[in-house]
Specification:
The complex is a heterotrimer of chains A (about 425), B (about 300) and C (about 300). By secondary structure, chain B is mainly alpha-helical. Chain B is built from 11 helices and 4 strands. The radius of gyration of chain B is 19 Å and the shape is globular. Classes of the chains: A alpha/beta (about 425), B mainly alpha (about 300), C mainly alpha (about 300). At the A-B interface, strand 7, helix 7, helix 8 and helix 10 of A face helix 1, helix 9 and helix 10 of B.
């Protein structure tokens, strides 16, 4: 059971009970007597390789949204759990949350395989699922669901923004270093499609065992001898950090350009500017983008001093805020009863917050954000801590994502 | 350019060389494991954690005390070795009379605790540790671009392996150690403090792992999971080389590094699995390992 | 009956009573998860407790059971019970060749060779198309039992899993207390002596190994249906480590140890999930305390104190 005892006790007390509820018993709360409670469950990697890209900071940003929204007429609780990047564990936690703990919104859920695994559970239980952390564009493609919104980014958008820009700049021959699992393969194939469309060529790829590879030198030397102009890194987290570090060590950066297809500001921080400088990467949010993003950062940063919010964290804030606005508009009881209707209402309403500005949500559940291509600053250009990016190019929301018709989402056709 | 099995020859040379570099880490780690197993009869599952601690201690020395890479090469193994001695004295020494199994389970639990604690305090995305200035840069070998630091790793590993071998085979301390593994009560009767000898051995094996950790710090990011990726392979190396055999673990370490490197060219997906294939074959054909004495 | 003596019969009746009450007090899906882990641990205990061989690769059979049950359920739409049994068939089919290779070695070498073989099975599961790689086999329907009982109802599924668990549990005890089981114990105690008495010990060990892997496969098959998913986690070596922990904690070679161990380990994972990384720290600490202080495990200690044969 993942609900914290304190919050359980708190809500029990608020509902007029003094006694402790036995943890294992199904929740029997006098709902009619008290304000309805909306529960948000943040499910992500709290201990593994994506701990810094998601983790506790996602929970803090979600709490920030709850605090700022300051709901009238209903209470909001945020609970969280660690899925350890295991799909089966995630499914079991999600079922418990819905069946026993009364969770209404499932939030974050990084790692594509986990994100895909919980999708049918949410649909079966008719709840709301907003994904911020996972990359797979399948989530709004063939695996789409009317109970789902993909909030922050996806593989197609990354491939288009980073890949497209590299090909335009003359990088027309590629070699891929690919984590040998669903996400890596999809990132590679999405990017390959774009390269071919722009008349570029893929000269080869090294699919390496994931997880468990720390030494990339062998693959880097192979990439180097392929003669390709661009090295596409179809991996994430520590793997990306390690492969960039070693690419520099082996002089790959002298003959090839590096395209980190998925990288967060937290990864750049781990690498250090000296190694990361000059890298091209795409995020849909950066703290120093405009006055609104800076204002958001100023509000939330004191609560998370060690970890600067990245786009995944910003997505949790933005998604939770929009969800709460929708609940307010349609009434908490109605929102709790029907996840599908809540999602439909969310799609109908305009999204507006400090992180992504004014945006919309498409029919298939794709939240359309702008895509920003950044270049990592040199140590000399950086003026302070976390001053890492300069904006190279921004793609407007309507062009950043895969066209609706190409996704083949079944319920959109119907 | 000539070709071998459809792969350009120079590329293959490069891979063999890179395999040797990875093999250097396998050799150092499995050497420590083999020494500990040979003398204490303990299969130290926490070896990967000591490797990780070596890297972390050198990172801490640099960031908290401003002590650089070269002093760390000496200091970090001493510090981690001392921690190892403490653990041996308080926990592991209680298990010597029992089945191997219990030592394995205890150290397995230990590694879960240590790695978990480091993850809690330092996160798992890794800390940068720069290559020392003297060893920066690279040499163009014609067929590949060879970072000087990697060359240094191989040299350092060879020196350490050789020194360990000399210490055990050629010094009087080593002679006592070997005697103690053969017949501890007899050696004790000659007035040698066997428990202290055993403790020192454990500390030494752990220090070897920590030394490898310091060498690895500038190459891989310093993170709490860095030992996990090595430990299974290193176990395979020790089993293949013959448990407790020093020469065996060193030669097998380098050899498997090369085999793994070549797999990365022909069938990269299998590069993490190939060592286990070798292990099964060796265990079936020659159960005591390639260089092992009687089981 | 089933080779149970008085203490064990009382214990078993108590266990059955708990099985009946549990879903009304606890969350049924949680109890099902626990029962799958318990059956897996019982199967593992058959090897370590009664033959004296520690397998460090039992996840391979558990995981293969998961995959095969999930695949047959999803693509052939067979009866749920048949799918679970298919998991058992898969476990046994894999256990036969791997066991044939592994039982040639004993002690620590047996542990190492099973670990290596399981790593190769893991690699196969990463690469083979039918397992779906990192995504696993998802959206597996629970289907129907005997064609008419809809298992999407958690309670219906629970009774099926409970029945499968109980059948497996009693089967193991029937095996252990049969003449065959006596020979296994004699091999554990003194293999050369058993050989000199004319037993082909390798055959006995292999049969025990295949039985163990078959039941591990059944446990995997049940788990796949309960959660509707089969993934790489189930074949990963950490699952092998976890079943060792479970059995050790409950008590090696005891009848009820694996069940108690599973109850503790699964609840620990569930209740500690919100603490993030403290799960592994706690698990590790429990492991260490167990090895240092309670080598007989929870049930083993209780049984020794109260002089019962549990």
């Amino acid at each position: 059971m993942t609900i914290s005892r304190r919050s359980l006790l708190g809500s029990a007390a608020a509902a007029g009970f003094g006694a402790t509820l036995p943890m294992a018993l199904p929740l029997r709360r006098a709902r009619a007597a008290a304000k309805p409670v909306i529960k948000i469950g943040v499910l992500n990697d709290m201990s593994g390789p994506y701990q810094n890209t998601g983790g506790q900071t996602s929970v803090i940003c979600t709490r920030q949204a709850v605090e700022e929204f300051n709901a009238q007429g209903f209470d909001v609780q945020v609970i969280s759990a660690d899925h350890q990047n295991k799909p089966d564990l995630a499914v079991s936690i999600t079922r418990q949350w819905f069946d026993r703990d009364g969770v209404d919104l499932l939030l974050d859920v990084p790692t594509s395989s986990v994100a895909l695994a919980v999708q049918p559970v949410v649909k079966e239980k008719n709840k709301v699922y907003i994904n911020s952390g996972a990359a797979s564009a399948e989530l709004t493609g063939t695996a789409c669901s009317p109970n789902f919104i993909h909030w922050t980014y996806d593989t197609y958008m990354l491939a288009r923004s980073t890949g497209g820009a590299m090909v335009e700049a003359g990088g027309d021959t590629w070699y891929f270093l690919t984590a040998d699992y669903a996400f890596g393969k999809q990132l590679q194939s999405d990017t390959t499609a774009l390269i071919k469309k722009a008349h570029g060529k893929v000269l080869g790829s090294s699919p390496y065992p994931f997880p468990g590879t720390t030494d990339f030198s062998s693959f880097l030397v192979q990439a180097q001898s392929s003669g390709a102009k661009v090295l596409g890194l179809a991996n994430a987290g520590n793997d990306t950090v390690n492969s960039i570090k070693q690419a520099q060590e082996f002089g790959v950066t002298k003959s090839m350009k590096l395209a980190a297809l998925l990288m967060f500001i937290t990864d750049v921080h781990a690498l250090g500017l000296k190694t990361a400088q000059g890298l091209n990467l795409t995020e849909s949010y950066y703290w120093d983008l405009n006055d609104r993003t800076r204002a958001f950062t100023k509000r939330v940063l004191p609560k998370t001093p060690k970890n600067m919010p990245n786009m995944d964290h910003a997505g949790c804030y933005s998604g939770a805020l929009h969800y709460l606005k929708t609940v307010q508009a349609m009434g908490a009881a109605a929102a709790k009863a029907d996840g599908r209707a809540t999602i439909a209402r969310m799609k109908a309403m305009e999204v507006d917050d400090d992180c992504f500005g004014k945006t919309t949500i498409r029919e298939d559940g794709r939240h359309l954000t702008p895509a920003y291509l950044f270049q990592v600053k040199t140590p000399a250009e950086s003026k302070g801590p976390w001053d890492y990016y300069k904006l190279v190019k921004s793609t407007p929301p309507d062009q950043a994502y895969r066209p609706l018709a190409d996704g083949h989402c079944p319920f959109v056709k119907a | 350019m000539f070709m071998i099995l459809g792969v350009p020859g120079p590329l293959l040379f490069g891979q063999v060389l890179l395999g040797l570099i990875n093999g250097a880490f396998y050799a150092m780690l499995s050497l420590g494991l083999a020494v500990i197993f040979g003398m204490l009869n303990i299969i130290n599952f926490a070896h990967g954690s000591f490797f990780m601690m070596g890297a972390f201690v050198s990172w801490m020395l640099l960031n908290y005390l401003g002590i650089g890479y070269f002093p760390s090469l000496i200091l970090a193994p001493i510090i981690v070795g001392a921690i190892g001695i403490l653990l041996e004295k308080t926990l592991i020494s209680r298990l010597y009379k029992l089945d191997h199994l219990y030592g394995l389970l205890l150290t397995f639990g230990m590694s879960l605790v240590v790695n978990g604690l480091f993850r809690n305090y330092y996160g798992s995305s890794g800390m940068p540790y720069d290559i020392p200035g003297v060893l920066n840069g690279a040499q163009n070998l014609g067929f590949m671009y060879m970072p000087i630091y990697r060359g240094w790793v191989v040299v350092a590993a060879l020196v350490v392996c050789l020194a360990t071998w000399i210490a055990i085979e050629k010094t009087s301390l080593g002679a006592r150690l070997r005697a103690a593994t053969e017949n501890a009560p007899m050696v004790q009767a000659f007035g040698v403090n066997v428990p202290r000898l055993v403790t020192l051995t454990f500390g030494g094996g752990v220090a070897l792992a920590a030394f490898a950790g310091v060498l690895a710090a500038p190459i891989y990011s310093v993170n709490p999971n860095m030992g996990d990726n090595f430990i299974n392979t290193v176990f395979a190396v020790v089993v293949i080389g013959g448990m407790g055999s020093i020469i065996g673990s060193v030669i097998t370490g380098f050899g498997l590094g090369v085999i793994e490197g070549l797999t990365k060219v022909f069938y990269p997906q299998a590069s993490a699995t190939v060592v286990f294939l070798v292990m099964v074959i060796v265990l079936l054909a020659r159960p005591r390992g390639l260089f092992g004495r009687m089981v | 009956m089933f080779g149970l003596d008085r203490d064990q019969a009382i214990g078993t009746l108590l266990l059955i009573a708990l099985l009946i009450i549990a879903p009304f007090i606890l969350y049924p899906v949680f109890v099902m998860q626990l029962l799958c882990a318990a059956l897996f641990a019982c199967a593992f205990n058959l090897m370590i407790g009664y033959v004296g061989l520690l397998s460090f690769g039992h996840a391979a059979f558990f995981g293969m059971g998961c995959y095969v049950a999930a695949w047959t359920m999803k693509h052939w739409h067979i009866d749920a019970l048949a799918a679970i049994l298919m998991g058992g068939v898969a476990g046994a089919a894999l256990g036969l060749p791997l066991g044939w290779l592994a039982i040639r070695r004993s002690g620590i070498y047996f542990a190492m060779i099973t670990l290596a073989l399981a790593q190769m099975v893991y690699f196969f599961c990463v690469e083979a198309p039918f397992t779906g790689g990192e995504d696993g086999i998802q959206q597996v329907p629970r289907g129907h039992l005997f064609g008419f009982i809809n298992l999407n109802n958690d309670m219906a599924m629970y009774w099926l899993v409970a029945a499968v668990f109980l059948a497996g549990f009693l089967l193991i005890h029937r095996i252990v207390h049969s003449p065959f089981g006596q020979v296994l114990k004699s091999i554990r105690e003194n293999e050369p002596r058993a050989t000199s008495l004319g037993y082909r010990t390798d055959d006995y060990k292999l049969i025990a190994f295949v039985l163990s892997t078959c039941l591990a496969g059944v446990a995997g098959g049940a788990k796949a249906l309960v959660f509707g998913i089969a993934t790489l986690t189930d074949v990963h070596y950490s699952t092998s480590g976890e079943v060792v922990l479970t059995t050790l904690l409950g008590g090696l070679g005891t009848v009820f140890g694996p069940v108690v161990g599973a109850a503790v380990v699964v609840s620990m994972e569930n209740y500690l999930a919100r603490f993030g990384d403290w799960v592994t720290v706690t698990q590790g600490a429990v492991f260490m305390v167990c090895v240092l202080a309670f080598r007989r495990g929870i049930v083993g200690e209780i049984a020794a104190r109260l002089k019962l044969s549990l």
